[in-house]
Design a protein that fits this description.
The protein is mostly helical. It is built from nine helices and no strands.
Amino acid sequence: MNQNNGQTAEQPLYEQVMQGASAATHTAAEAVMSETGTISRRAYNLIIGFIVLWGVGLDTAICMFFGDQITAAFQNKWVYILIYLAMVIVGCIIVHVAKNPVISFVGYNILVVGFGITLAMIVSMYMPQIVLEAFLVTTIVTALMLLLGTLWQDMFKKIGRVLFVALIGVIITEVIMLLVTGTYPTWISVVSAIIFSGFIGYDWAKAQEATPTAKNAVLFATSLYVDIINLFLDILRIVSDD
């Protein structure tokens, strides 16, 4: 069960800004990819995996060691939202505009810290065992979708536009539900989890189609990271409502 029912109304607001960042990230990921400086496919995939794990690990450290300080510092949610948006926007711009993959990785870290601040505020609302359960389920679903994205690349590459339209629909539905009824039904989280699961398979399939460069590795790792974090938030809500 939710550890603090009084804070549930705020969590959907946090999730909406996270999902908005996801939509922007996937839009930017459709930009032209670098065709120079190719590396081996194995090295390319290893870099993607490392960057994603780095982001998840950094967020885990932020939640574990700085969660209380962050929650205390951002009592005003609008101040938090402005800082979050600034970090995500700046991070996304650097990731997608910089030609040097090292600079893109710096932008990725700025984005990750912005997400980490949000995660720290959200997970503080739940008991540790619920957070751990959601983390494990997210790991299993992510591994499964990466496998499916490898086996059925052609199918996943065709559903990107459908997933994007569905994501926009979910965000609009969330806003309407919160404004009209003040509630956030579990079924929205279920639909959102399905969409982000699909995005994991889609982004992995697109990554395997792209030219294997360090720059592209950072780009697709960023998209996968955003997918995984949003999937985790949806599963966290689903698990806590059981």
